[in-house]
Sequence to fold (382 residues):
Amino acid sequence: MSDVDVSVQGSCDPRFEEMRTVLQANLDSGADLGASVSVVLHGETVVDLWGGWADHERTKPWQADTLVNVWSTTKTMMAISALVLVDRGELDPYQKVAHYWPEFAANGKDGIEVRHLMSHTSGVSGWDQPVTVDDIYDWEKSTSMLAAQAPWWEPGSASGYHALNQGHLVGEVIRRITGSKLGEFFAKEIAGPIGADFHIGLSPTEFQRVSPVVPPPPLPIDLATLDLTSPMVRTFTGPAPEASVAWTAEWRQADIGAANGHGNARSVAKVQSALTNGGAVDGVQLLSPATIDRIFDAQSDNVDLVLGVPERFGLGYGLPCEGMPFALDAKVCFWGGWGGSMIVNDIDHGMTVAYMMNRMDAGLVGDTRGFELIAAAMTAPI
Fold:
């Protein structure tokens, strides 16, 4: 395939040329196999780049419309879906979850508020055992399981990353309000109106555009050193899918608002740019500035009980904290996905930056590839 051009393609405002250089270097070094990066500045796309290979065998170039499973970057789409309902006055983040979903009150969860689900502080960060990956494909079964179980720590007292179930928790609240599951609501109310090529629950007709993720190297974990009753272990084993699950039709078609969104940097940045453009995307008003401000009402600031690192969560998004490569005093909200994908919204500068790729690294929320691209965007002369 040496005659195929897999160098970086697309458009790039000259002010952001360093991003093209960084992306090309990552492709050349093998740090990236195939990837895309996008920047939206004050509602205008100023960077839309892609390159490399869409498959591990290096037979298919990454195209302009290639899609990839972005793992937990999907959570930002779940968050903006909930915020749309907040903006419409249909969802109160300070209301009890059981107000919308009465069954959720069981087993000591009657005091949990919607904001606790959105900020990983509910104490329900995974499913009680026994649970399988097939179980989470079954919406009624998986949400009923969550409604029945007890929290694993005192709700509201600390964050513990809701790695795989946050979309089921928030999504069921959305379903109780609207009658639509998360993926359907997102498609109808957000992606459709603005023309964003992002999917929570992918139609088989789109499978041919998907670049299969390349799983990360295994982490050297000594099970004997782990507290099997800790929120960390219970979350990551309840259930514990391999990255290769993303290759399956069952995963792609399911409604897993925490982890199975399919898109690319262009579509992720387009949706999320609502936050950095006063709530509007291409003339469609999704949110009010007042609702965007609510994201920055910090809900937690602690060493996360599941991730084991300092995290500060607002309403649906991560906020800058010690150890993060973002200015601590900046009005920035962000999140990323297992393996490296990342989305950053810089409200003060009206800039959204997205990086999506297929070669996974071991990190759960971004890595140096994305951080370098984001740094290049944030230091551009805008």
